Amino acid sequence: MGRTDATQSSANETQSRKADHLRVCLEDDVEFRETTSGLEAYHFTHTCLPDLNRDEIDISTTFLNKALAAPILISSMTGGTDLAKRINCRLAAIAQQYHLAMGVGSQRVAIENPAVADTFAIRAIAPDALLFANLGAVQLNYRYGIDECIKAVEILEADALILHLNPLQEAVQAKGDTNFRGLLDKIAIVCDTLPVPVIAKEVGNGISAVMADKLIAAGVAAIDVAGAGGTSWAKVEGRRAQDPKQRRLGATFADWGIPTADCITGLRHIAPFTPLIASGGLRNGLDIAKAIALGADLAGLALPFLQAANESETALHTLVDILKAEITTALFCTGTATLAQLKRSDALAKRT
């Protein structure tokens, strides 16, 4: 098989995998079975007499020097298929209207097959939104380099590039890319060379404080901990696997990972000022408020947005309105008027 044929075959496999991921996530139970985000272990102290007017509460924030109306990230999900294009376009319209941040799924499929690049090209729909391009860091060990990283950014006209870290997913995935040796040095080169900030992100198994410290030293501008408790990509890959061994791996490691709350507190202990995204099992505005109170700057949700985007534009509007109302209510009932005040307060405590 020649290089062109091999590249086309890889592109076809990647595109098929993208379609499988959407199907499995929308149709199957893909969430962790027992491991949770850890956020349920925390509770807010109720303030029965807040010295506030709820209508004046401000949940706006900034991230990577860009203003956002709420601390909500539409987390990286998809691209590369017709359904993915429709979902990304709907999500982009919501990000623009509500002044939210948004990431896209891995753009490897667009690098391998430029014909599907338009499934990620959402800047025209969201001209003012904070947009994150996305590639798997492990691809830096599989012939990818700075040119591919720049291409991913250019396709999206992105404000930053996510390099996602997914060793467990690759281990369970049939024909997964599992050579992670030496990646930290290559990530450092990308951070030093790329004209936009680099965000290191797990995909649902968490980033420990030790690993966060190494990534920050390598030059990443922000970290998305993407902890355990939400979608289990070991479970997703196990469900789509044809090989019994891979199916067994997916089932065995379906609950593997560091809970999101532990990732947030661990990272904040060693890096109090690094821009931090909390994702992994966040399902409502109360989860978002808890994540912010623990030290996150932004909170990412994927599955709730995917389900709503697949349903309708109206469902997306409803979801965002509810999330904003829930965040605002959490601030109101803790007597805090802004996200900064919530972070500085002692309103959040761990259950004993």
Automatic annotation (TrEMBL):
Annotated substrate binding sites: R17, K18, S106, Q107, R108, Q169
SUPFAM superfamilies given in the database record: FMN-linked oxidoreductases
A GO biological-process term: isoprenoid biosynthetic process
One annotated Gene Ontology cellular component of this protein: cytoplasm
Residues that, per the record, bind Mg(2+): E170
Cofactor: NADPH; Mg(2+); FMN
InterPro entries: Aldolase_TIM, FMN-dep_DH, IPdP_isomerase
Subcellular localization: Cytoplasm
Annotated transmembrane regions: none
Catalytic reactions on record: isopentenyl diphosphate = dimethylallyl diphosphate
Keyword entries, A-Z: Cytoplasm, Flavoprotein, FMN, Isomerase, Isoprene biosynthesis, Magnesium, Metal-binding, NADP
Residue stretches making up the FMN-dependent dehydrogenase domain: 16-107, 184-345
Pfam family, one: FMN_dh
Keyword Metal-binding annotated: yes
Domain of life: Bacteria
List of residues binding FMN: S75, S76, M77, T78, S106, N134, K201, T231, G281, L282, R283, A302, L303
This enzyme's EC code(s): 5.3.3.2
Gene Ontology molecular function: any one: oxidoreductase activity
PANTHER family in the record: ISOPENTENYL-DIPHOSPHATE DELTA-ISOMERASE (PTHR43665)
Its biological purpose: Involved in the biosynthesis of isoprenoids. Catalyzes the 1,3-allylic rearrangement of the homoallylic substrate isopentenyl (IPP) to its allylic isomer, dimethylallyl diphosphate (DMAPP).
Family the UniProt entry places it in: Belongs to the IPP isomerase type 2 family.
Description of how the protein assembles with itself and partners: Homooctamer. Dimer of tetramers.
NCBIfam families, alphabetized: IPP_isom_2
Name assigned to this protein: Isopentenyl-diphosphate delta-isomerase
Protein's organism: Myxacorys almedinensis A
